[in-house]
Every structure is written in structure tokens, then in C-alpha cells.
Amino acid sequence: MSRFWNPKIRELEPYVPGEQPKMDNLVKLNTNENPFGPSPRVLQAISAETNEQLRLYPDPEGVQLKKTIADYHGVQPSEVFLGNGSDEVLAHIFQSLFQPDQPLLFPSISYSFYPVYCRLYGLTTETLDLDDDFAIRPEDYQRPNGGVILPNPNAPTGRFLGLKDIRRIVEANPETVVVIDEAYVDFGGESSIPMVKEYPNLVVVQTLSKSRSLAGLRVGFAIANEALIEGLERVKNSFNSYPMDRLALAGAIASFEDEDYFQRCRQSVIGQRDKVTEGLESLGFEVVPSAANFVFTRHPDHSGAELARQLRERSIIVRHFNKPRIDNHLRITIGNSNQNQALLDALEDILKQG
Q1: Distance separating alpha carbons of residues 176 and 98, to the nearest angstrom
Q2: Cα 257 from Cα 39, distance rounded (Å)
């Protein structure tokens, strides 16, 4: 440890991202990337932007992208906030909208970046257990707090909480901000964005990394009322006035302009998820109902860590979490049909060997 570190940094346990291994003939099903490439219109837009204009700073406000997102979701551009991936958007939310004098509430099995941000920004937390079926219990979030954040669908479980229950949580917390993190909502959930007009304390966060196949561009956004967006803009402009580069802005706009491609890819992932679920269940796995582009599964007779190890030996990478209650589960990204079949064939072979 460096003696020059700020003492606060010594206490941090950074978020560990999903592994990006360099292996031949790899079937990579561990980081929830989309198995299909970006829209051809996205690639054309990025290519058109690679010119001498790169010597100039991008639009610090991302005006055209904000308008594109606002038009798509039926809100005003002033209700849209942009960031370098939804993780940056979330970081600004943690810093600017959650209150330090009461605990932030979120599920005990959830996105593991949340507790990292809490430590970084000095927020106290209260994590709330999921029920026996890994579902969020809305009644648990009706207690004093400095804010609430929920992934919906939840990660790593994939379970979706209906909008009626989201509404219950938002209405129970009129004095604090409720954030719904919708990174996976396009794969089977219903967005809370229309509710932003009703509730001044609601923030909805989305990303283009998953359903729009743009994890490499790092584009995220939040939608909320203007007062909350102004708070986020204050933090952003005190941190990095230019979070979105020219290529990301151009590619993101083009992705919203190719709705047919988006819908085809989204439906293909959903169809493959159904096939993977059926295949896993036929092998004796228990699969949590998923509205995401992954499944959360366990085999009652086999260790999750051991299954992950044996899959790796076959050049198939899935995500294993060595954490209480879920240490026997695997989170498996939905790949293309060939990748998914390779996974199921490998698991069948492993189970046959005992």
C-alpha cells in the first residue's frame, strides 16, 4: 500500500468487473454482453464521425442525443441526463441525490457496485433480504432511509418487479429519491420511465450496453424531473464536462434510429433465453424466472464453483459469485444459438461424469 494514498482510499474494496479472458475458441457467457453486434447504422454513424472534427471537443451537453432519447421515451430533453456508461450516471446519483444521515436501502443480493459507491461517498447502507424465491419485497422499503435503489430486473437474479410494486415503493418514500436501475429492462420488463411524470422523487437509469449492443461505447442515461437532473448536471460539470465523446454520441443516436434492428435482436435474445432455460431444466437445473439477458441457475446436486471450473476447462466462461445464499448459483449470459448449445452440451457431459 502506498504511503501517499489518501487514508480514505485504504479502506476501499473496489468493484471487480466480470473477467475478460483471452482464450482461444472462447464461449464467453460471463458479462451479459449482447451476442449480436450493433446496428449497421451505428457503425456507419461512428465511421462518418472519424474525421478531422475529432480535434474538437464534443458537445458537453449532448443536446442531440438528449433530444433523441427524450423523443423515444416521451419526455423532455431537460429530463434526460447523460453519462459515460450507466455506472458513471449511478456514481453521480450516489454523490448528489442520496442523503448521508439515513441508510441507503437496496437488496442484499444485487448489483455489487452499490456498496462500493456507498463506501466511496460515505453513505451508510441497509441491505434487505430477498424472499425465498429471490424476489424483492416492496413492504421492506417502507422504512426511514436516505434513498432507495433497485435494479429492475434485479441482477444477478434476473427477476422483474412489476410496476405496481415499484409504485408502492416510490409512494412510500416521498421525501427521498428512489432509483430504478433498468440495465436489463428491454429483455422482458416494463420500464418505469412513464412514472417519472407523476413522481418528483423517481429516477430511472438505463444503458445502451446490453440491449443495444454498445458496451464498448459506454453510454448511459437517467430520466427524472428537471430538478433532479439539475443536481446531476451540477456534479457532472464539477467532475467532467465532456463525458460523452463524439463517436459515442453519434453511435448512440443511430442506435435509437434503427428500431427494427433493436427489436429483432431483443426478441432473439428472449427466444434464446427460453431455449436455454428449457435446456437447463431438462438437465435438472433450477432456474430463477428471468426478464434479463441472463439466467440465474443452480443444480441441486452439484457445486456452482465446481461447475464453473469444469466449464472453464472446456473454454466456456460463466459467472460464479462466492457469496452467501448464492454460492451454488451460476449467472449465465444468453449467447447466440451456437454458444448456448455448446453450454448445454458441456453441462450434459459434466453431469454424466458425475
Answers
A1: 7
A2: 10
Q: Would you give the end-to-end CA distance of the chain in angstroms?
A: 44
Q: Is-cis flag, bond preceding 77, omega within 30? A: no
Q: What residue has cell string 453513505?
A: 123
Q: Residues spanned by CATH 3.40.640.10 within the chain?
A: 40-257
Q: Looking at the whole model, is its pTM more than 0.90? A: yes
DSSP state of 39: P
What class has domain 40-257?
A: alpha beta
Helix/strand/coil for 189: coil
- Entry field: residues in the chain: 354
Whether residue 131 contacts residue 163, with contact meaning beta carbons closer than 8 Å, is answered with: no
Q: How confident is the model at residue 1, as a pLDDT? A: 64
* Contact yes or no for 218/248 (Cβ under 8 A): yes
Contact 315, 25 (CB under 8 A): yes
Element (H, E) at 260: helix 259-282
Q: What percent of the chain has pLDDT over 90?
A: 92
Domain with CATH 3.90.1150.10 in the chain: 18-37+260-352
Q: What's the mean pLDDT in 251-263?
A: 98
pLDDT for 20: 78
Main-chain dihedrals φ then ψ at residue 101, nearest 5 degrees: -90, -5
C-alpha triplet 179, 144, 103: angle, nearest 5°: 65
**Residue 310 to residue 316: CA distance in whole angstroms:** 9
**C-beta of residue 1 within 8 angstroms of C-beta of residue 224:** no
Burial call 37-69: b when 16+ CB within 10 Å, e when fewer: ebbebbeebbeebeeeeeeeebeebbeebbebb
CATH number for the domain formed by residue range(s) 18-37+260-352: 3.90.1150.10
147 by Cβ neighbours in 10 Å (0-12 / 13-18 / 19+) ranks as buried
Separation of alpha carbons 217 and 173, rounded Å: 35
Give the sheet arrangement for strand 147-151, strand by strand: 80-83, 220-223, 202-207, 178-181, 147-151, 104-107, 125-128
Here the cell at position 69 is 432519447
